[in-house]
Design brief:
mainly alpha, about 80% helix, about 0% strand, rod-shaped
């Protein structure tokens, strides 16, 4: 107690108040050298000071906001990419469907033309007095040429 009174008399009340406030807001660097002092709650604030502590809290809050913003932008970019990929895939699917429809139409026309050629050939054979009918024996021979008829 005598030491505090001596310091108070030597420095004066305004300077002591100023030093106390400076230590409270900016911290006391000498206290950092004491082992395990940061485990005492009041001493922890005296070591770091209010300004650096609040600055660190504000920086953490700002970073957490930036992290959320970055995650949001990442999710939006992924969604846009997926939508673009889906649209591209739909274009490919539509193109293949058009090709399939065209091929089916072409096959139907070729089949119809082939049937017409067969019908014309049969009419030509009929007009010449010949027939070209396939019998069961012919079918068996064509299905099993090496063996006997079924």
């Amino acid at each position: 107690m005598n030491i505090l009174i001596a310091i108070l008399r030597a420095l004066g009340i305004p300077l002591c108040i100023f030093l106390f406030m400076l230590g409270y807001y900016e911290g006391v660097p000498v206290l950092r050298d004491i082992p395990y002092i940061d485990h005492i709650p009041v001493a922890r604030e005296l070591i770091a000071g209010r300004v650096p502590t609040e600055r660190a809290k504000a920086a953490d809050a700002a970073r957490s906001g930036y992290v959320l913003e970055a995650e949001k932008k990442t999710a939006e970019a992924k969604a846009a990419k997926m939508e673009k990929d889906r649209a591209a895939a739909q274009i490919v699917i539509d193109a293949y469907q058009v090709q399939l429809l065209n091929r089916q139409t072409l096959d139907a026309l070729e089949n119809e033309q082939h049937e017409q050629e067969i019908a014309d050939y049969e009419k030509k054979l009929s007009a010449a007095g010949r027939t070209c009918h396939v019998t069961d024996a012919d079918r068996s021979f064509l299905l099993n040429p090496s063996g006997s008829a079924r």
